[in-house]
Amino acid sequence: ALFSALPRIQEDLKMSDGETTWIISAFQLTFASFLLLSGRLSDLYNPKYTFVIATLGIGVLSVITGFLQSKIPFIICRALAGIMGAMTIPSALTLPVKLFPEPYEQSQAIGTFGGSGGIGNVLGLMIGAIFVKCASWRWIFWFLAILSIPIALRSAFLASAKTSGPQRNLKTTY
């Protein structure tokens, strides 16, 4: 959603062209760097809690980012959001497997999960462009918070007891 907002963000935060690349790169760099560690955290601890904490973290960081007036804190919040984003992926992939043990239901859940990514990519670009055109680039972040905070809270209560308890397996061989 931020691609359409980059010129406005650059103008409002008085960023150079080189600094503007960090808006996207800070998220991608920390996301890629923390993805393996996040997978291990999700394996060691409950994936439900990892998902809820990360989704809630994205929401809180989005609220903060929407209010920022300076480029350095903005880029730092984008980097922190990348870490939170990385924490959601392994746990989000584990939850359907644990919540739907029946093979047919599990395949439907995983298929829905996979299809959601493509739909989210397309809708994110469209919604971001609408916000930039009709309101402000800040609404991209606030809208993300409006979505992610309730999802985190709902996930905390809706994920069944099948996912609760520590998932520690200390006899891992490498």
UniProtKB/TrEMBL annotation:
GO cellular component: membrane
Localisation: Membrane
A Pfam short name: MFS_1
Main location: membrane
GO terms assigned for molecular function: transmembrane transporter activity
Alphabetical list of InterPro entries matching this protein: MFS, MFS_dom, MFS_trans_sf
Bilayer topology: Multi-pass membrane protein
Assigned keywords, A-Z: Membrane, Transmembrane, Transmembrane helix, Transport
Chain segments annotated as transmembrane: 20-37, 49-68, 75-97, 109-132, 139-161
Major facilitator superfamily (MFS) profile domain sequence ranges: 1-174
Record protein name field: Major facilitator superfamily (MFS) profile domain-containing protein
Annotated organism of origin: Hermanssonia centrifuga
